[in-house]
Design brief:
Blueprint lengths: L1 E5 L10 E6 L5 H4 L1 H6 L19 E5 L8 E6 L3 H6 L1 H18 L4 E5 H18 L8 H12 L32 E5 L7 H25 L7 H15 L2 E5 L1 H7 L2 H7 L7 E7 L10 E5 L1 E5 L19 H14 L7 E10 L11 E3 L5 E3 L7 H16 L3 E6 L3 H7 L4 E5 L2 H14 L3 E3 L17 E2 L7 H10 L7 E6 L5 E2 L9 E2 L4 H10 L2
Parallel strand pairs: 1-6, 2-4, 2-5, 5-6, 9-11, 9-14, 10-11, 13-17, 14-18, 15-16
Antiparallel strand pairs: 3-4, 7-8, 8-11, 12-13, 15-18, 19-20
Length: about 525
């Protein structure tokens, strides 16, 4: 769906439907007075009096079909006070619900009146002034556009339409989707030209949504299609499209390099493993110390010899959500004007059991030279990440390193399915991640990196074991990774096992891959850490 702009005020506005966001009990004359000029019939429409503005409420008001604005769709924001506490997520949800209704009604052209959105800035800023809690600045234009686009997301690449062709999202490699989608979403401006801040914010929302959608596509894709090679191809396609650099290293190169931990995971896999690298280095930033992102890319995880139970094993296609989030972020980065140097490093492989697979009890030597006793082959994520972390630090001398992975079930037990853990050796970095995450809808909570827990990882026969006791499993995994972070490097580890994949259906996500952390990483690149 295209994002457009209309200027010149109510007399010039044209759309099959205009969306308006209203608080509970708020009158149209207060929330969107200019919309009443564009659609004066609202003043006598009986259905308007039935709308309450409750959270998740969506209503359609109909005028004459030949009018410039024949329909208005009202989306409720709930109580003003409650909205202020979670304003960005509430606006995204309302925008997503409104666009889904437009799709159901087969409405081709949709618009949002900009001044009615602008008033939401005051609601959020009032909370900052009242609480002084350091709430991150956000743009209602960006969040409305992002929420609207995510509301239309669906993964149907492998479904057939009436013509016998594969379905898919806009821009997919498959045939044209026969099912309906709105053609464009316009922001309606009273000014004679589009204000620069409005234009920039809308494009930021569009870029963020594109990145989240790509990450969702990769996580939702079947494991016989989304292989390590496919992730490498995606990185190369993004790099070619946006003038970035991409490369990948294969099985022989990784083994020869001394990545014994990574190699221990791909030993049982027929699919060619890849260390996928993508770099954004705009002119003038080529020698800058980069922000380095390292993402786990296990494209299917059987658990290896420590085989997982069969129930829900099909969901293990999503064990590459960390790598998917990085690729999604680079897609969004390519659509943005970000002067910072950013590098993505993604160790990608399947974790399979066969005659060559690593056994519990094996000892491997990591790229760092440290040895690891592998007690559980299903704790493979930390093995691929530790070698990738060592390589990335040697190769790029980063300013900041952030790794992310669907790493531990223990994190899900600790924080549930909606919240990810952040472990960091720098409080400012942890706070920044939590702050931007709250705004963009990626909720993080800090867990400790207490060195006393490393006792759990001591081995009688190697420098460390890859697992400790069940208790504190997420902390143990983070401490394992910490052993491979160089002194003085600012580092954060994001355990996204809970929120990366969901069975819940919401107005902005139909279930499956969520694209969690894409927008957080994008904001780290945009705003600096």
């Amino acid at each position: 769906m295209d994002i457009r702009f209309q200027v010149g005020g109510p007399a010039q506005w044209r759309a099959d439907a205009v969306i308006v966001f209203l608080f509970e009990g708020e009158a149209l004359s207060d929330g969107a007075p200019e919309l009443l000029e564009a659609a004066p019939w609202l003043g006598i429409a009986p259905a308007v009096r039935d709308f309450r503005g409750k959270k998740d409420e969506v209503a359609v008001f109909h005028g004459h079909p030949d009018l410039a604005v024949p329909r208005v769709i009202a989306a409720g924001l709930g109580k003003r006070e409650a909205f202020a506490a979670t304003a960005p997520s509430g606006l995204r949800a309302a925008a997503g619900a409104a666009l889904r209704r437009c799709r159901e009604l087969k409405i081709e052209t949709v618009a949002v009146e900009a001044s009615s959105l602008a008033r939401l800035d005051a609601v959020a800023l009032a909370r900052v002034a009242a609480t002084g809690d350091g709430v991150q600045v956000w743009s209602p234009f960006e969040e409305a556009v992002c929420g609207a686009l995510l509301g239309l997301y669906r993964y149907d690449r492998f479904k057939t339409n009436g013509n016998g062709n594969g379905g898919g999202n806009a821009g997919s490699e498959t045939g044209e989707d026969a099912r309906f989608e709105p053609r464009w979403l316009a922001l309606l401006c009273a000014e004679a030209s589009v204000p620069d801040d409005l234009h920039a914010a809308a494009r930021k929302g569009e870029a963020a949504a594109a990145g989240v959608a790509l990450a969702r596509d990769l996580v939702n894709g079947p494991p016989n299609f989304v292989t390590p090679g496919h992730l490498a191809e995606q990185a190369e396609a993004i790099a070619k499209k946006y003038g970035m650099k991409a490369r990948s290293l294969g099985r022989a190169e990784l083994a020869d390099m001394g990545m014994g931990a990574f190699a221990s995971v791909f030993r049982g896999a027929e699919e060619e493993p890849r260390l996928v690298v993508i770099e954004h280095a705009p002119k003038g930033a080529e020698d800058q110390k980069p922000l380095v992102l390292v993402g786990k890319g296990i494209t299917f995880d059987t658990g290896g010899i420590s085989l997982k139970p069969a129930a829900k094993m099909h969901e293990m296609k999503g064990d590459m959500a960390g790598a998917a989030a990085i690729l999604g972020m680079f897609e969004a980065l390519g659509r943005s004007d970000v002067p910072r140097r950013v590098v993505g490093v993604m160790p990608c492989t399947e974790n399979m059991p066969d005659g060559r697979a690593t056994r519990p009890g094996d000892i491997v030597t990591t790229l760092s030279g440290k040895t690891v006793e592998i007690l559980n082959t299903d704790a493979e994520g930390r093995l691929v990440l530790c070698d990738a972390l060592t390589w990335a630090q040697r190769e790029y001398s980063p300013e900041v390193v952030v790794d992310l992975a669907t790493l531990t079930g223990a994190c899900v037990v600790a924080l549930g399915t909606d919240v990810a853990a952040v472990f960091a050796n720098d409080d400012d970095l942890s706070g920044r991640i939590r702050g931007v995450g709250d705004v963009v809808g990626d909720r993080f909570w800090p867990l400790p990196l207490w060195d006393m827990y490393f006792e759990n990882l001591k081995s009688d026969v190697a420098d460390m074991a890859n697992v400790g006791p069940r208790e504190g499993g997420a902390v143990n995994a983070a401490l394992f990774l910490k052993q491979f972070v160089d002194k003085g490097v600012r580092w954060a580890h994001l355990d996204i096992a809970g929120p990366a994949y969901t069975a819940k259906k919401t107005s902005t996500c139909p279930g499956g891959g969520t694209g969690f952390a894409v927008r957080t990483l994008l904001e780290l690149a945009r705003g600096g850490v």
